[in-house]
What does this fold into?
Amino acid sequence: MRLNEDSLRSVFNALIPWYIKFSRNLPWRSNPLPYHVWLSEIVFQQTRIEQGLPYYEKIINRFPDVYALANAHEDDLLRLWQGLGYYSRALNLHKAAKKIVNDYNGEFPESIDKIKSLPGVGPYTAAAVASIAFEQPVAVFDGNVRRITGRIFCIPDPEPKLITSVLERIIVEYTPSRFNQSMMELGALVCKPKSPDCVSCPVKQYCCVFKKGKVGEFPEPKRKTAKQKLHFIYFQIFRKDIPGEFALIKRSRRSIWKGLYEFPSITSSNVENVSEAFKRAFPGLEITSEPLFLRNSRHELTHKSITADFYAIHCKGDFPDNWEWYNEKSASEKGMHKLMFEFFK
It folds into this structure.
């Protein structure tokens, strides 16, 4: 079957009734308020529903509307986000909430261009929010749509602009929210990347790869870039004049884990003498006890493979102004990345 308007109509005439009957009962679907839809799209970027749903519910409970989110302290949002990853999403969510309050009087913008102008919102998220919250006839294109169209029409590498242009010629004939979400749901529940449930697929009679027995061959996988390898040495630094407290620093905006708290650290994959490495990194400090190895950890990000060693160390001297001092209880109230979160568990 060739990709055209008539063939897509056949697909959606079978797909949308399936979606109405079998779609999951997700909290933002029964009453798709723009704030809820937008939040769901940000939380579930590169995140499975079962993983992200508790975070979505925590954020909604803590910040029930865009005003509450805009007025939140950044650290409070990052603390709620802890463990979900991709922390720039949380920072952009906060910025976007402020923009909605300041520029649009707290009313979520309906214009697709204005939605795209919000921090952290790209073409897919803008189309999803516009179609689901406002029933605007704009088609989404993401990994699900790429995979489904690639399989149904035997297209090795579906081109986003081409697929979107054809979808948008017929979306006006349907309810846009159901049109787009039916594709998302099919990709999540049936036409999965691995082990798709072709027997249960509502559109298998139209599927080119199913008929040819080549489901695993379409679409072609995207090339993966080699992961950058990083090794951190973290120091839980204590000082004699503040017993029981240790230093934390807030990561800069230009680094991974933007705005999150961690121990002072050095980045190196080849350190033979930890004490000497510490002295070079922090020349204003004098070590009063040898570093004590605590643990090592590993963390995998999409484009980075990270290992880390943790040491406890006691010092005196001229401590940097940007170091903040906490005990275990007060530190637990700060947003931290997974390596740090696991350290304190």
User: Anything to note?
Assistant: The chain has two domains: 5-217, 228-344. The CA atoms of residues 3 and 162 lie 10 Å apart.
